[in-house]
């Protein structure tokens, strides 16, 4: 398949559960990146079944993938959210690149699975959706592992942001040609150790 010039944008908003992906997306995407399309399976599930979104999670995931395909066919700029805990988006990224999409990945990192569990618990007290602790832990490490092994090498631009503290901190960024800028080597080394 012939690859088109990169004239469209696909933003992947990623990180473990509770990392602040959705919250950041509502500001960063429309206001800073002028991206008006944000596809989020959690929001879709809540729209289908507000009182029991977990019961329609698979259906919401299918709707999300269909919407992504539709947006790619239209050539629209868009973003989607993921924990990166599965390999399923690698083929989607490759397809998007062949259609002329520049792939930008932002990974919101928290310093531990326990921090992620605590944030999800806080979200639940405010009416948000719950996720079992074992799933949060599995996704925490799986997402970091896949970030390094699968997703970074397939993105045109990637950034890792420490979202543990009140003020987010850019830890590292890189480009498709494997060039990296490390802004906080101590935290970056912790993240790399967690990804193993």
UniProtKB/TrEMBL annotation:
> In this protein, which residues make up the domain named Zeta toxin?
9-150
GO molecular function annotations of the record: ATP binding; kinase activity
Question: Which keywords label this protein?
Answer: ATP-binding, Nucleotide-binding
Fetch the InterPro entries from UniProt.
P-loop_NTPase, Zeta_toxin_domain
Q: Does the keyword Isomerase apply?
A: no
What is the name of the protein in this document? Zeta toxin
Organism of derivation? Pedobacter psychroterrae
Q: What is the lineage of its organism?
A: Bacteria, Pseudomonadati, Bacteroidota, Sphingobacteriia, Sphingobacteriales
